[in-house]
Amino acid sequence: MKTINNPIFHFFLAALTVVCLPLFLRSGVLASEILIFGLAVAACNLLLGFTGLLSFGQGIFFGVGSYVAGILLTRYQIPVPLMLLLSVVLGALIAVAVGWLSIRRQGVYFVMLTLAFSQFFFFLAYSFSGLTGGDNGILDVPRPVIAGFDFTNLWSYYWFVAVIFLAVFALMLRTTQSTFGRTLSAIRENEARASAVGFPVRAFKIAAFAISGAVTALAGALHAMLIGVAPLSSIEYHTSEIILIMTIIGGSGNLFASLLGAGTYMLLADVLSTIWPRWLLLLGVALIVVALFMQRGLWGLIETLVSHITATSKRTPNAATERPLHRQADGGKA
Amino acid sequence: MTYLFQIFNGIGIGMLYFLLAVGLSVIFGLLQFVNFAHGAFYLLGAYFTYDLVERGYSFWVAMPLAAIMVMALAALTEIVLLRRIYKLPHTFHILVTVGLALIIQEMTIIVWGPLGGNVPPPEGLNGVIIVGDFIYPEYRLFVIAFTAVLAVGLWWVLEGTRIGAIVRAGSESSENTALLGYNTLRINSAVFGLGAGLAGLAGALAAPIRGVEPFMGLEALGIAFVVVVIGGMGSYTGALLAGILVGVTQSVMASLWPEGARLMIYLGMALVIVAMPRGLLGRA
């Protein structure tokens, strides 16, 4: 069990996924979307899994990133690296504002506030159609050409996304392992105690929001370049909803689980939506099943399977010591 | 004079928001459970009314029947599904009710199509009232009067009757209420049915005003949250005040800056949160 909870192993799995996606998928769009949403979901997980904040507002940051890409690339010809940097900064700033206001309330009130703010930003984008293109969004967002490297082709763009994905994923893994990340977990486990020990809990929560917003906005900008549009739907409630759903389906214990959740959701959506336009009905049923029977998500399922296999393969006294370790790992998230 | 019209409109819409928010609040108060499917029950109320009126029933039959159907359906959902998840952390309450909302929304599209439709104002109330140079649709006046009577009735039931006392006791301590010999399981189902039924009734009343379409549920959910956040969860007068405030803001802004009307609602909420984190009349 120790290996499968090791962050280096998680990075290895993520890298393996990045290499394997082009081998199994024919659509470069789908493969890139899995990585892009992988980032957004990992960012959501940083709030939900590591800090204990269930945010229904992740679509705000995704949409902001998407609009930054759309506006800066089509109207001002700003170089792509600078544009990505600006989207990250703006995403972080807006996340600080949303976080600062939302953490004034706790528990379910907090969740309701994040949802209300996601509506606020949706209507903001809708009302200022001069800036955002309103219902039509911003069309003809180009894919990048950087220093002579042409990423306009779908698969070459995939590798552009893949490099950014792995770099950010590694950074996020380091963040969760750092003292900062441990403190976030302490806040999740027992906020009153973390506060009593002397941690400025609110500042930590806002910082978690800032990181989450920055990464999600980056994902949004990458997505706008991928599909060539910065649509109104990027900032809609539905985007917040699917990011959250992918997070919970994957499992909120670690960051690779987020890529797992994003991948599973995108693949299922791709298959089911071609078969049946009303496939969201099945998604609704799936959510209820996850809540009733699979509360630790897909990653939890894998952990259980692995522990069963190791427990049956070596029926030695070792297996007995292995069990409590596993429980401990679970105890936190139950 | 134009503002008077907008303000009246706003009060009418606001009373519907109040019904939505009180339903949400009652469910939360007893079950400690945020119902993300609340908008979906509002959607169902509207579509049941639409369907019954299309089949030739009078609105006066369709409207209460739709509310009762939503109530029964919600109580059934509570018995079959929701009572199994109260003990889980609230992440899973949200997951299950979001799932439920998706199922209801997609079923609505399967049954009635993606386009929506209109419900004509009921017979007897399809005219206008003229006072001086003030002209106002009769149906909207009826909505204001009807919901006002309902609000008083509901307040009396919750605060002044034995049933209300049992419900309030249940929200203080479910265990102690059960020890006194009350069937708390049955009370839970009934209260969930009542709360969702109020959303259904709001939907039924809204149908002749705004028509029906499959995504009206989500909009209603967002608004109900705003009203609850502004008014303060668990505060009856807070919900009334906030509901009317939100309705009037939306309605007046709609004549000044149509695209930004709903934006102003959410902006207002942000301002209230900055100034008074507990809402206008929130207790805890």
Automatic annotation (TrEMBL), chain A:
Molecular function terms in GO for this entry? branched-chain amino acid transmembrane transporter activity
TM regions (residue ranges): 7-25, 31-53, 60-78, 84-101, 108-128, 155-173, 206-230, 242-268, 280-302
Entry membrane topology? Multi-pass membrane protein
What are the protein's UniProt keywords? Cell membrane, Membrane, Transmembrane, Transmembrane helix
Q: Return the GO cellular component terms, semicolon-separated.
A: plasma membrane
Q: Does the keyword DNA-binding apply?
A: no
Q: Where in the cell is it found?
A: Cell membrane
* One Pfam family, short name: BPD_transp_2
Q: CDD domains of this UniProt entry? A: TM_PBP1_LivM_like
InterPro entries registered for this protein in UniProt: ABC_transp_permease, LivM-like
| Keyword hit for Transmembrane helix | yes
What this protein is called in its record is Branched-chain amino acid transport system permease protein
UniProtKB/TrEMBL annotation, chain B:
Q: Name one Pfam family in it.
A: BPD_transp_2
Task: Please indicate if the UniProt record lists Transmembrane helix as a keyword.
Answer: yes
Membrane association type: Multi-pass membrane protein
PANTHER family linked to this entry: ABC TRANSPORTER ATP-BINDING PROTEIN, BRANCHED-CHAIN AMINO ACID TRANSPORT SYSTEM PERMEASE PROTEIN LIVH
Alphabetic keyword roster: Amino-acid transport, Cell membrane, Membrane, Transmembrane, Transmembrane helix, Transport
Domain of life of the source = Bacteria
Q: Which GO terms describe its biological process?
A: amino acid transport
Question: Membrane-crossing residues?
Answer: 12-37, 57-82, 94-115, 139-158, 190-209, 263-281
Provide the protein's localization. Cell membrane
Q: Name the protein family.
A: Belongs to the binding-protein-dependent transport system permease family. LivHM subfamily.
Name the Gene Ontology molecular function terms of this record: transmembrane transporter activity
Cell membrane as UniProt keyword: yes
Cellular component terms (Gene Ontology): plasma membrane
Query: Which InterPro entries does its entry note?
Result: ABC_transp_permease, BCAA_transport_permease
Query: What name is this protein filed under?
Result: Branched-chain amino acid transport system permease protein
Major localization class: membrane
